[in-house]
Amino acid sequence: MPKRPNSRFSMSDTKFKNAIVSALREILDPNATFILRWTPDFEEKKVDFEFEAQAIGWIGIIFVSPSSASSFADTVIAGVFDDGSTYIQDRYTDVSIPEPDTPQPLDIQQDWPLVYAEEANGKTIVRTSRAFDTNDPQDNPIIQDETILFSWAYDDEDLVDGEPLYHGEDGRGTVLLNLLYPEKTL
Question: Name one Pfam family in it (predicted).
Fold first, then answer.
């Protein structure tokens, strides 16, 4: 079972563009190279996300729900090309394949709208949202009151021919996290 970094979730009062004002925050690795901020919206039944990585290529997150009968994990990859144009891709991963470079096909239904993306000073910041349950057969209703396996990855290269390059051993990690009630995280 993956261990959580020494840093714990906390409230962040940092004001970001597009109004994420008071978000939960988790530093996902000991070197603080990947930071996740999120705000559950119980009225809209969605979670607003901001993730930040010390990378100038693609950055991504993967959710695996332990209670799901599906072998798929939800994946989102986003970034900023050198020309300033932005991208976001909703993908899925078959977690039953034990290969480190498992293919991540594009999801037919794109459920991660890009709100904002910026690359500056060696960092990439992406803002997006995700419904608690997308009703997409290639997604899991993973944003619920349970601890999930949450993986993150990044690379200093953007997409090549629409595909992310493999991040290698250093540009990734995994933690356990309850997005709706982080105090319940195992």
Answer: DOMON
State how far the alpha carbon of 154 is from the alpha carbons of 41, 51, 132, 167, in Å.
Answer: 27, 11, 24, 6
Q: Which domain holds residue 108?
A: 10-184
Is residue 143 assigned to a domain?
yes
- Cα gap 45→25, rounded to integer Å: 19
Structural domain includes residue 4: no
Based on the structure, what is the number of domains in the chain? 1
